[in-house]
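Async update (no meeting this week)

Hi team, since we skipped the sync, here's where things stand on the single-chain job. The sequence we agreed to prioritize is pasted below, unchanged from the tracker. I ran it this morning and attached the output directly underneath so nobody has to dig for it. Comments welcome in thread, and please keep replies under the output.
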Amino acid sequence: MFDFCLPTQSTAVPGGQDWLHEIKFDGYRLRVERNGDRVRLITRGGYDWTKRFPWIAEAALKNRQKNFVIDGEAVILGVDGYSDFSALHSGKNNDEVQLCAFDVLAMDGDDMRDLPLSMRKANLARLFSTRTLLQIICVLGPVVVMKWLSSHYDFSWASALAAE
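Output:
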């Protein structure tokens, strides 16, 4: 079982080489669990939202890696590029939901949580792409699927799928 790691509030921004600074999107936390031909999208509250965002599950099934657990955030981006929680919460725009992945918790049966975050992000990058690592957004069918790993790692899931 993989529990969500929750952020903690601080009064100062940490610095130094041991820290990665990531964008905080305002959305629903999702864990994408793929085990062979089965994919589940699990919320922080433990709900299975696979049927709510089926295109995310379909994209996970197209990945050549058959077993993985990804931690991410389901968001809807407004025209200004900022996440729009009201649009997401309304449920009226579910076809616009994007998954922003920021961590891989397990891959190919190996629990990766004890690895340094930088190594997990490198593994997440390999999970999504064998090609260029500079693409941020691309279209997968009618849905834009964006993977925002951090300010240093921008990868596209769909480009990884196109590489197969």
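Quick observations from my side:
The CA atoms of residues 103 and 121 lie 6 Å apart.
The chain has one domain: 28-162.
Reply here if anything looks off.
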